[in-house]
Write a structure and sequence with these properties.
213 residues, alpha/beta, Rossmann fold, 2 domains, 3-stranded antiparallel beta sheet, 33% helix, 24% strand, binds 5-O-phosphono-beta-D-ribofuranosylamine
Length: 213
């Protein structure tokens, strides 16, 4: 069975979307463990309810980023996962950690990357007068929000949009594209070869959800 470890820091609605698709039989995989760096993350309750092993690794108990990342690696490695899914994990990861999980760690970011890396993406898209916004699933590399993009979902921006209303619609798209990315990876239909994304054997130049059949 294809094994996944999910890292969270908060609500875990993306975790829930993946749990739901596994339970519906649309993703052939199991979530072996959920790990949070915060004890109060609601996503831990979602994991518990779904009967998934869950751990809290409190980063404030560690003296350095490296020592936290080492302990985190050890817990993840103990599950021997095929894929590590960052789902709202609000930690900058050390280069060694990223290197260790190279090619098998993915993240979701609330923008149409390469636009708006970092925080406050919804506000920045509105302030720039963009006509569209969205979310991207990408491989994780040491540079923040910069790895090869796997799938993107577009959200048209309305005149009446506020940061909050836009965020809510982007969140809904996240819940579609993240499980889909996991599904394709678990099926073995997506591969990274020399930093190019191959989908069912063909190079996927524009990885929008609409192009995936
Ligand atoms: C999402 O907006 C995701 O794009 C970002 O963190 C948020 C996590 O939300 N990386 P949730 O915890 O999955 O609800």
């Amino acid at each position: 069975m294809y094994k996944i470890v999910v890292l969270i820091s908060g609500g875990g609605s993306n975790l829930q979307a993946i749990i739901d698709e596994i339970q519906a039989g649309n993703i052939t995989a199991e979530i072996s463990a959920v790990i949070s760096n915060r004890a109060d993350a609601f996503g831990l309750e979602r994991a518990e309810k779904a009967g998934i092993d869950n751990h809290v690794l409190d980063h404030t108990a560690f003296s350095s980023r490296e020592s936290f990342d080492q302990s985190l690696s050890q817990i993840i490695d103990s599950y021997e996962p095929d894929l590590v899914v960052l789902a709202g994990f609000m930690r900058i990861l050390s280069d060694d950690f990223v290197e260790h999980f190279k090619g098998k760690m993915i993240n979701i970011h609330p923008s149409l990357l390469p636009k708006y890396k970092g925080l406050n993406t919804h506000k920045r898209a509105l302030e720039s007068g963009d006509k569209q916004h969205g979310a991207s699933v990408h491989y994780v590399i040491p540079e923040l929000d910069a790895g090869t993009i796997i799938i993107q979902g577009i959200v048209p921006i309305k005149e009446s949009d506020t940061s909050d209303s836009l965020q809510q619609r982007v969140h809904k798209v996240e819940h579609q594209i993240y499980p889909l990315a996991v599904q394709y990876l678990a099926e073995g239909n997506l591969h990274l070869e020399n930093d190019k994304l191959l989908y069912k054997g063909d190079v996927l130049d524009t990885p929008f959800i609409e192009n995936l059949k």
